[in-house]
Amino acid sequence: ALARRINTVFTDAQTLLDEPGESRYLLQVRQHYHLLDLVSGNVRHTTLSDMPALLEHLGEAHHSVRPIRVERHALEGTDLSLILGQARAHCIQVFYRVQGSQAEITVLDEFNALWRQQQPYRDEQRLLTPLLRFLQSVSYRRNTQLPFEENRLAAMDILFYRLMAPAAGQALDIERRPSPRENVGDPFYDVQAIVEHSERGRSRVTLYCNHQEFSSLEYGAELFAAVAHFILAQRRGAERYPCYITDLDMSGLHGTGRAQTVQHLRYKAHLEAALNQALESL
Q1: What is the count of structural domains for the chain?
Q2: What is the DSSP letter of 77?
Q3: Are 116 and 200 found together in one domain?
Q4: CA distance 7 to 103
């Protein structure tokens, strides 16, 4: 069995090397992962000690499409093998899995970079609508920076998938789902963030909530507390559900270079963590 597996690995790797473009091949030996980057006849090997290390590596930005072939004995019993098997280029794919009062969201961006986050779950609408708004805003902002013809060609689909087991004890399956539709009664409003370089080399953050401006220049270390107070005052009955960033402008950090979607998602999560921590402290 071992000899057969080794032979399969070499055959798969050689096939990928012979194909045009970049690709990756993922192996698992016990709890360790081995990722082979295959580019133009060359092989680069990366060893990853556990699942968190693998997820961090898969989340690194890379400005070219790099699909992953998963060796059939790798990632057995995990949803990640299903997700990577669905990867498509030049679109945004959102996968979600509900487990009781929690949901796990995984995003594959336009270059197959991966982002994952745990969130409270009440219903699909509240889970997915803030993320859809954010991804649409990022896509729109990116496209406005392109010449007209490139803009027309650069429009990307945002695709949703639900991971669930047909019955208890059965294997997970993936189901394509429609994009959430916004309802007038949804308890969301726009929270925009603009991030720029400051003179001291640190990033300067400005948040807009319902067109009200909050700048780190004005509030300093109390920025997120001030925003949390404002948000809580707008809510019916001062409800304490999480707050989500719906738009993020990072052009002040990246200049003419366009940030990849996974970079926007990471910075979004960083800002939301600070904002929601401030909300919980009130």
Answers
A1: 3
A2: T
A3: no
A4: 39
C-beta separation of 171 from 165 below 8 A: yes
Choose the final residue of a domain: 168, 184, 200.
184
Q: pLDDT 10s digit of each residue in the chain, 282 long?
A: 656 766 776 676 666 655 667 788 898 988 899 998 887 767 888 999 999 999 999 999 988 888 888 888 889 889 999 999 999 988 999 999 999 999 999 999 999 999 999 999 989 998 999 999 999 999 988 877 665 555 554 568 999 999 998 777 778 899 999 999 877 566 667 899 999 987 776 789 999 998 899 999 999 999 999 999 998 888 776 667 788 999 999 987 766 557 899 999 999 999 999 999 999 998
H helices present in the chain, as ranges: 2-18, 51-58, 79-85, 124-144, 148-154, 216-219, 223-234, 251-254, 261-281
Q: How many CA atoms lie within 13 A of 97 on its CB side?
A: 19
Domain termination site, one of 138, 162, 184: 184
Same structural domain, 157 and 70:
no
**pTM confidence score:** 0.88
Which residues constitute the domain of residue 128? 87-184
Q: Residue 178 in 3-state DSSP?
A: coil
